[in-house]
């Protein structure tokens, strides 16, 4: 076990935000991805997409300025930026499922080395469960990045050989950003692209069920993201 | 010309029979036909099938209909962990639930309204959603067959209607409402304002009047219940 700390949720979000390019249209899911809009690199404009019918979603509304007809997918009153549009839920999912967004970034429960993705149901959990927009967004993503803790609360690895949780979509994940590493899904399996500062590839492997491919020296996650 | 403007929400839902299959618009607290839902609760029809994104928050939105055991079947994408009245009854086995991916829910409604008898999508392939559904490989990709989803009634919320039933919506309160309007035999809309024919810019109309059958002017009850 490394003595170095894991990245905070904010640091994971900040690292994921470095994936965004000027002009990108981006869907952010629940969990850590929801924090990413606070870390968009200076000088670029990103058009955030919301499944309930916004392209060009801005920051949360300031207290006293909420309009409850303008909410994000988590019911939070938000704003829109110049160039934004409103449309129905079907058009919103057409954009996502049809591959019209540049990047989608979702929270996850498990990612498998073949790119399979589970994020909507823990087996045995109470209640009805719910799918929401995750299956449409994951299936159609041109580039799907998953942001999550590297292991579950009880220490179980979340990067696995095969998902054991009900799937959201098959073979859809391109990159995983966690509190320990950045990992790419390749035809050969998981490629370790970056490690958290102070962590070695061997230490990250101990927290990972699937084998991590290591090619040469693995860089640390950029200090710019901290 | 047939009069579409009803004097009250109660009048607009008076003929709904027990066992009816109903779409309910709304997402994230916005665009719910709350006055129609409360009128339906007062009317008392039970054994309903509700087709909706989510199942209310506490007593708000659809919550009241679950609280009073009006709904037996649900077709939804995200019932919601905080939909207390739904979740209690679901846990007791009193409610049957079909979970549908949200975008597929939209497309199944669109198909019903558009006279399309089904479609294939990669969404759901390899997941529990595909169980019991026909699968087929199209262009090398696993896909799943989805049938259209129609209903007897749609209860929707719009911002303004003209007296013919042309509708415009406000911001994200649009959500599922226009999709449901095309897929129901009878679409009942609750609006903030009814305006004379000709007062809406034809370029701005989102739902043309052909899809709208009953109009009720009722300033929406916003459910700002944070779940």
Give the SSE layout:
The complex is a heterodimer of chains A (226) and B (227).
Chain A: H1 9-17, E1 25-28, E2 47-50, E3 54-60, E4 78-86, H2 89-97, E5 103-107, E6 110-112, E7 117-118, H3 134-140, E8 144-147, E9 159-160, E10 175-177, E11 181-186, E12 189-195, H4 201-206, E13 212-213
Parallel strand pairs in A: 1-2, 1-5, 5-8, 6-9, 8-10, 12-13
Antiparallel strand pairs in A: 2-3, 3-4, 6-7, 10-11, 11-12
Chain B: E1 5-6, H1 9-12, E2 21-24, H2 34-43, E3 48-52, H3 63-67, E4 71-76, H4 84-91, E5 96-99, H5 102-114, E6 119-121, E7 135-138, E8 141-146, E9 151-162, E10 167-168, H6 177-181, E11 184-195, E12 214-217
Parallel strand pairs in B: 1-12, 2-3, 2-9, 3-4, 4-5, 9-11, 11-12
Antiparallel strand pairs in B: 6-8, 7-8, 9-10
Work out the radius of gyration of chain B: 18 Å
- CATH homologous superfamily of chain A, by name? Glutaconate Coenzyme A-transferase
Radius of gyration of chain A: 17 Å
Number of strands of chain B: 12
Largest interface: A-B, 44 and 54 residues
Strand content of chain A: 25-35%
CATH topology of chain A: Glutaconate Coenzyme A-transferase
Describe this structure in words.
The complex is a heterodimer of chains A (226) and B (227). Chain A is an alpha/beta fold. Chain A has a single domain (9-225), classed as 3-Layer(aba) Sandwich (Glutaconate Coenzyme A-transferase). Chain A has helices spanning 9-17, 89-97, 134-140, 201-206; strands spanning 25-28, 47-50, 54-60, 78-86, 103-107, 110-112, 117-118, 144-147, 159-160, 175-177, 181-186, 189-195, 212-213. In chain A, the strands form 2 sheets. Chain A has a 10-stranded mixed sheet with strand order 4-3-2-1-5-8-10-11-12-13. In chain A, strands 7-6-9 form a 3-stranded mixed sheet, with no helix packed on it. The longest helix of chain A is centred in the N-terminal third of the chain and has 9 residues, at 9-17. The radius of gyration of chain A is 17 Å and the shape is globular. Chain A starts with 8 loop residues before the first helix and ends in a 13-residue tail after the last strand. The model of chain A has no long low-confidence stretch (mean pLDDT 96). The radius of gyration of chain B is 18 Å and the shape is globular. Chain B has 2 domains: 5-100 and 149-217, Glutaconate Coenzyme A-transferase, CATH 3.40.1080; 103-148, no CATH class. In chain B, the strands form 2 sheets. In chain B, strands 1, 2, 3, 4, 5, 9, 10, 11 and 12 form a 9-stranded mixed sheet that branches. A 3-stranded antiparallel sheet of chain B has the order 6-8-7. The chains are: A alpha/beta (226), B alpha/beta (227). Chains A and B meet through helix 2 and helix 3 of A and helix 4, helix 5 and helix 6 of B.
